[in-house]
């Protein structure tokens, strides 16, 4: 009987789950809301309940699963599967994610940072196209990056490598980040950061489409900002320019250190497409070292929201086949 892997992309707002073959083909996928109340105590139980319910719907038993892989937002000790400082999930301190999943599901599990999983997914089945030196940036509720050097994920001494969302973009006077610092790239280039910039623009009295959306709905989304900029709204265009400046500068600095073959932009914000990508490329070109600029390409992720679950499944597969 063919065995499947459960790939899980744990996010601060939603959790994406998929059943994936050992060849990386998605058999089924869905998502659930992430319940980060009560210090995240319901998160793992909700995921397991959802997996069991889905198996029941498609007429399969849990025995079809060979293992579980998960990408989680925050530093992960890959060996122990302990998640640290997951500020967007409600967990306090460190959380034994791998041990909890293995205990509750009686299956082997492998855990890594969500951006690392997205990078692995893009390298395995997506835009990385087999590149051995790759940086995959996830622009979602937060900002993270998975760094692959010579075909290996760069973990760092404590699993915190690739946390580019916490590069300081604004040294003084920046907005407070969930990590406790101020002025992080995440406060600008994430979906929540873009919404913050939009609300500040409206509150400052700038007229236009953004103000109209807030007046009508009381809220605004990052998609609204990009759509408005695409339609020529001046205030929205200024926000996109600011996001692209800080993101392009950060990527140039990262690339100046790593000289990757490719930088892949994924996550919900990347769905803005060319209106963001072109401006980021322009800023990258402005700040990257000449040889780096000539050898590093920036592309949009091709797997979309599937990158994380595919990469997580690869983790599980790798653990089982080592």
User: Low-confidence spans: pLDDT under 50, at least 5 residues?
Assistant: none
Structural class assignment: alpha/beta
What's the story with the biggest beta sheet?
5 strands, mixed
Number of strands: 13
Question: Proportion of β residues?
Answer: 15-25%
The radius of gyration computed from the alpha-carbon positions, rounded to a whole number of angstroms, is 20 Å
Tally of contiguous helical segments: 11
* N/C terminus separation: 21 Å
Q: What string gives the helices and strands in order?
A: EEEHEEEEHEHEEEHHHHHEHHEH
Task: Please tell me what the overall shape is.
Answer: globular
Describe this structure in words.
- The structure is a single chain.
- With 322 residues, the protein is α/β, with parallel strands linked by helices.
- It contains 11 helices and 13 strands.
- Strand 9 and strand 10 form a beta hairpin.
- The protein is globular, with a radius of gyration of 20 Å.
SSE blueprint:
Blueprint (H helix, E strand, L loop, with lengths): L3 E7 L3 E7 L5 E8 L9 H15 L7 E8 L3 E2 L4 E3 L9 E3 H9 L3 E5 H12 L8 E6 L3 E7 L2 E2 L32 H4 L1 H13 L5 H9 L4 H9 L3 H25 L3 E5 L7 H14 L2 H6 L1 E4 L6 H15 L1
Parallel strand pairs: 1-4, 4-8, 9-12, 12-13
Antiparallel strand pairs: 1-2, 2-3, 5-6, 6-7, 9-10, 10-11
Helix pairs in contact: 3-11, 5-8, 7-8, 8-9
